[in-house]
Specification:
The complex is a heterodimer of chains A (268) and B (193).
Chain A (H helix, E strand, L loop, with lengths): L7 H8 L5 H11 L3 H19 L8 H18 L13 H64 L4 E6 L8 E7 L4 E7 L8 E9 L5 E6 L7 E5 L7 E10 L12 E4 L3
Antiparallel strand pairs in A: 1-2, 2-3, 3-6, 4-5, 4-7, 7-8
Helix pairs in contact in A: 1-3
Chain B lengths: L2 H11 L9 H9 L3 H23 L2 H17 L11 H17 L22 H16 L3 H11 L5 H8 L3 H20 L1
Helix pairs in contact in B: 2-3, 3-4, 3-5, 4-5, 6-9, 7-9, 8-9
Chain lengths: 268, 193
Amino acid sequence: MNTHEVSADDLALFAMHSLEPADVSRISGHLGACISCRTELQRIRTDLAAVALTTPEVAPPPRARERLFAEIGEESIHQLGGSPKPAAAAHPRWWAATTYTGALMLAIAAGLLWTENARLRFQLTALRQVLHQEQTQHQQEQAALENASHVLAMLNSRSTMRVRMAAGPAKREPQAEAIYSREQGRLLLMASNLRSLPAHKAYQLWILPMQGAPISAGVLKPDAKGSAMMMCPQAPAVEAKGFALTVEPEEGSPAPTSSPVLVGEVPS
Amino acid sequence: MATAPNSDLQDSRSGAGRSGESDYRLVTRIVHRDEGAFGAIYDRYSRVVYSVALRVVRDAGIAEDILHDIFLNLWRSPQQFDGARGKLAPWLAVIARHRAIDWIRKQHPQEDLSEVQLVADEDLAGEVERKSAIERVRVALNALPEKQRVALELAFFQGLTHADIAARAGEPLGTIKTRIRSALLSVRRALER
């Protein structure tokens, strides 16, 4: 930063408002375009703050606090549209006294109303947050319920086909069952004993149509026990002749790049 | 599920001066016109603001006016105040110094409050850490070569320009700039220690 047009010396003086106006505008212009100088300026201000904070602390007089709070109290009342300034003279004293008493009561009432209003607004904000959280949770539960009812409908449908895929008869061999409803456009895969995969690899499920190339139905990764379940809620509605599972990059492949780990054919 | 917002409500009803409530949270409450939170911030930092202003203007009445203006500004525009961790105390100290120098020079405030940005420094965050860091800075300032210390004092607490200081010391402008910068680097090293 020090190698360009603004030196750190100048930045320190700039931060202290100790430069002449011409230098101030030159540095202000430069700061608009130089992130490193802006960062250094912030750092210098923090250094200066530390210098300021070395000042031995002296308590302000108590009246300073009273004066401040009286002013903000007045402002609050005025913001609420309260206590207009009393009209000048021309009224008898008893009338003025009544007016001032009334104004004072109005001011107190306005102050109380303002406080209550602030408290209620805070509560309202909190309640809105609660409502938002509950709505979000409700939507999530609704989506889960809908998904479950779709699965149930698919499992109970007579037209749904179930195809078990296996590499061999042994119990611990990888196996999977693909449940596919062409009508509903849904495909459920339940797999077990799948081998663990290297990092950046995943299993990819393919629909093998009667005609044409395999169609991807999604990628999945098994859990530590080798089990996996995947629901494809928008599976392509094709006449399938079978299903296959291959190992692919975890982001999936447009077409299978390895031999199927599991494959199953639709019974004729 | 509903516990976090309920506790917020309880916080708002409890005393704003309760120890441990963060500057950020208090400033957020001030945005919602919470006078209790404003009082807590005032009680926490009015001494800093008043002391710095008093050191610069050397007049209790004027220092009180500066304190009043800064906190009134905080009440009116709390969003300008950065309540993030470690920033409010140093930020208020810098603002107090600037407002006091503006008063000495009979100038209107030279910059918007929101333009005065500092880095968040953990050493200046909590009261205990801040006291420790400030003590290190105080020691570093006392250890500065006399000419550096005087240059910084004149520029920072008396509001002299580097040209004024150079004229007063009868030395080149560049020398004064370098002295001020060197003094500030010593402060930074003390903060980073």
